[in-house]
């Protein structure tokens, strides 16, 4: 049997025929390439063909917009200057399932000249009246007036709630134009008085 094998090899070599080992041939050819394809689902007649559709509802921020400045009417000592502050707007673009927010406000003293005691109107003489609140979307906005005075619940310089939004859903807005009143003491000196009303939303 061994002689037969050698005889075959000899004949093959003499004929000029090269034999390539099977293992070498397989290594040269390499692995077979895999083909990938995608095609829509196919169904037969009368069979429902569902297509899944997706998208995202985007969300934003809770923001507050207030006037940069306001001017109240001129008055004499012992009178009260009352006028609109300008439009205050809450914009809630958070698109929450259960939306709520709170706006607080506070005031500084009103001063003129060198801000001496005689040139200062205290915070206890300043009042904040919310007035009507207009809303869009789903939100219940409730205003709380802060009268002048130093008692709890008055507009006494500490930030206090002026409008609260509750029972909301999705995007919503609330707009109001509060009235600011400053009771000028009879002892006040003449001059242009300036103070700051500060709002915050959370």
Written account of the structure:
The protein is mainly β. 10% of the residues lie in helices and 34% in strands. The protein is built from two helices and eleven strands, in the order ααβββββββββββ. It has helices spanning 2-14, 22-29, and strands at residues 62-65, 80-84, 88-92, 99-107, 110-111, 120-121, 126-129, 133-143, 160-176, 179-183, 197-201. Strand 5 (110-111) and strand 6 (120-121) form a beta hairpin. The model is unreliable at 1-28 (pLDDT under 50).
Which characteristics define this entry?
six-stranded antiparallel β-sheet, disordered N terminus, 11 strands, 202 residues, three-stranded antiparallel β-sheet, 2 helices, rod-shaped, mainly beta
* Most strands sheet: 6 strands, antiparallel
Helix content: 10-25%
By secondary-structure content and strand pairing, the structural class works out as mainly beta
Tell the overall outline. Answer: rod-shaped
**Quantity of strands, as a count:** 11
Cα(first) to Cα(last) distance is 97 Å
Model regions low in confidence, pLDDT < 50 over at least 5 residues? 1-28
Beta-strand percentage? 25-35%
The value of Rg in angstroms is: 41 Å
* SS summary, helix count: 2
Mean pLDDT over all positions: 86
- The SSE string, one letter per element, is HHEEEEEEEEEEE
């Amino acid at each position: 049997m061994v002689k037969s094998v050698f005889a075959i090899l000899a004949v093959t070599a003499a004929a000029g025929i090269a034999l390539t080992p099977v293992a070498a041939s397989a290594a040269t050819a390499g692995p077979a390439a895999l083909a990938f394809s995608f095609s829509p689902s196919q169904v037969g007649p009368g069979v429902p063909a569902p297509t899944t559709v997706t998208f995202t509802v985007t969300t934003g921020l809770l923001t507050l917009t207030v006037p940069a400045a306001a001017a109240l009417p001129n008055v004499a000592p012992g009178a009260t200057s009352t006028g609109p502050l300008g439009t205050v707007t809450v914009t809630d673009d958070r698109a929450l399932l259960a939306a709520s927010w709170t706006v607080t406000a506070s005031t500084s003293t009103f001063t003129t000249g060198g801000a001496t005691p005689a040139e200062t109107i205290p915070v206890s003489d300043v009042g904040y009246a919310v007035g009507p609140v207009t809303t869009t979307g789903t939100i219940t906005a409730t205003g709380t007036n802060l009268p002048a005075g130093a008692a709890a619940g008055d507009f006494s310089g500490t930030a206090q709630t002026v409008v609260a939004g509750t029972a909301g859903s999705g995007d919503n807005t609330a707009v109001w134009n509060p009235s600011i009143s400053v009771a000028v003491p009879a002892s006040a000196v003449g001059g242009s008085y300036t103070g700051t009303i500060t709002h915050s939303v959370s």
